[in-house]
């Protein structure tokens, strides 16, 4: 058995993105992973709710991949959640999201300085995304803490660090697809161990 | 020329006195009547041609019934059937019964009683409907009920005309419908031809049925192609001629078989009420109707025989009030039995207690056939004229005294009226532009009325259930018929700027409160249309061209979100520029240095805005720029191949 993964990529300024663009291409290269560029599909923010619901219904795991903007996700992610996750579909008559895996894969440029103190701690990050966690919990999803990519790897150049991030993300997606992760345990440690 | 010469005093009298009457709040009908009195008995300007003119002007009643028919779809007529038969029947028979009983007791003659009962049971369709419409009362319960009764009376005239000669001591020839001496004049009987005259009863009935069926079938199947053919010629006056021919033809056909021409016109109106030419017909016939009815009222006023009035003033005035009292009692009883609200009961009872123009016709026939003595007929004519004279005063009484007493101000009525029509949008011009507007509005359930001169297009739209009508939307009378008075929004979507400007200026003048959304071609056209008074001006090409530009950006590799942002920024800046330049725009803007400088400045400003808001790379972060450039290089080298998964 393998899981089908839906990556909802949300970057309002992809031309300014370095890490996220790379990661998006990594995800696109893995079979069983569907990548949707939300800002490209909905430049007016007017979301096709039925289409998005159908996409989610088909997937076993839903990942929002995006940079952290002011301690949260870019606004289109919130708009997506508000419009797509509706009563009657996710809750009530049907429970379309029940049992699906859900997480945010986030990047942040703030890997140093004062800003980093607030943003980069894992506990801090999980707390920031609490509204999404609560939503997922209410809809019966299996919520995983944010998959974060920032400079805790004190390695050489930025280019090397980018390669490292890409490899980590690829491995995570493949393991998730092949059901090699024990979802009860913190997945970071499992990946470091293997 | 002779005809024109004797119409002139009527027109001049009306022109002077009707506005005065309106200003005094008496209504135009009373104005016409007063004009008639001034011309006839007072100044003696009315010649013996008055009778001919009266016959001509009686045709206004026919036209009015045609217009009423046009307003009334068969379905609505069917829903009215209870009121029509119930209220109408009881009013006519109740009034007749009281008069017959009264005359029989006083005079001892059943025949005279029946003849007078028929004459006096009828009310004045012309005065009442005209006044109801003028005072905006026709949609209220009392107004509708009054209309139902009037319609029943118009139909009841037919058997009455057949019955009246039978009441005569000596049986003479049946008279024609619009026959008769009129008020105060001689019984100038001119006999119309009745094709069915002398046939056995069954053939008579068959002939009448055939004519009615013919009118319905011709209206259904013949009128459409004929009107479409005329409409495709786009000649306004030919359409008017066709409309007149239709009304006159139908009524003459009815007269030929001995039926009421008004009824025929009404029938033709109902048959055509569902057609796309409805509003055009309305706007074509309306001025003729108004004018003829006006002259008709003038002739009523002119015909008042003051000699007779002054010789028997007490008798005539008390008889008039007696008639009003008898009819009023019957009407009030009906209103109470029907449980009308107080206001509507008053309106219903006060609107119908007069005698009517059909009464004159019956009187004429009664004299020629000998059903009534001439002396009595003259007296009755005067009584009817007097009651008609009192009608506008009764309406004023209702409006000024009774309604305020009941504690219901005008505001409440006005509000109810607007709610009924809330959300109506009139779309003038249904080319590619108007069509999209119409579809968008209708998809959200907004009621639209569509007007265009393209008969084929209108026909197509009607097949899709759109309320589409043929006609020239720049004619205010058509817009009025289409209900612009009740509409909230007007979409001016004609192709031609010149035509748009003229139409918008006219609408602005007459209906200052309606919101006009207008189509414009280019910037210059938009300035002209905006100056004409449209609140919202939409340049037809702008949205589409910006959209194409955005698509082109995307195809050049710009991310869709960025392309959308640029398109929006462009659009916003262009809209602002439009507003800025509108203030200083002149027809010869190319020679206007102020305008040209501003225009140049604005266009430079746009480039600056786009450069600063949508630059590709963060200027502050050198590292990120380098990394992004490196990434772009990598991507190019891969030549569109997908990166390896592992």
Per-chain topology:
The complex is a heterodimer of chains A (194) and B (646).
Chain A: E1 5-9, H1 19-28, E2 33-37, H2 38-41, H3 49-58, E3 61-67, H4 75-84, E4 101-107, H5 113-119, H6 122-128, H7 130-138, E5 142-143, E6 147-149, H8 158-177, H9 187-193
Parallel strand pairs in A: 1-2, 1-3, 3-4, 4-5, 4-6
Helix pairs in contact in A: 1-8
Chain B: H1 2-23, H2 28-42, H3 50-57, H4 59-71, H5 74-79, H6 81-106, H7 110-121, H8 125-134, H9 141-163, H10 201-232, H11 236-256, H12 261-272, H13 278-302, H14 306-311, H15 313-337, H16 342-351, H17 357-369, H18 374-405, H19 410-420, E1 425-428, H20 432-443, E2 448-452, H21 455-463, E3 468-470, H22 476-481, E4 489-492, H23 497-510, E5 515-520, H24 523-532, E6 536-539, H25 542-555, H26 560-584, H27 593-613, H28 622-637
Helix pairs in contact in B: 1-2, 2-13, 3-13, 4-12, 4-13, 6-7, 6-9, 6-15, 7-17, 8-9, 9-16, 10-11, 10-12, 11-12, 15-16, 15-18, 16-18, 17-18, 23-24, 25-26, 26-27
General description of the model:
With 194 residues, chain A is of the alpha/beta class. Chain A has one domain: Flavodoxin domain (Rossmann fold). In chain A, 43% of the residues lie in helices and 15% in strands. Chain A has 9 helices and 6 strands. The longest helix of chain A is centred in the last third of the chain and has 20 residues. Chain B has 28 helices and 6 strands. Chain B folds into 2 domains: 410 residues, Na+/H+ antiporter like fold; 194 residues, NAD(P)-binding Rossmann-like Domain (Rossmann fold, 3-Layer(aba) Sandwich), CATH 3.40.50.720. Chain B has a 6-stranded parallel β-sheet with strand order 3-2-1-4-5-6, with helices on both faces. The radius of gyration of chain B is 33 Å and the shape is elongated. In chain B, α1 packs across α2, α8 packs antiparallel against α9 and α15 packs across α18. With 646 residues, chain B is mainly alpha-helical. The chains are: A alpha/beta (194), B mainly alpha (646). At the A-B interface, α1, α2 and α8 of A face α26 and α28 of B.
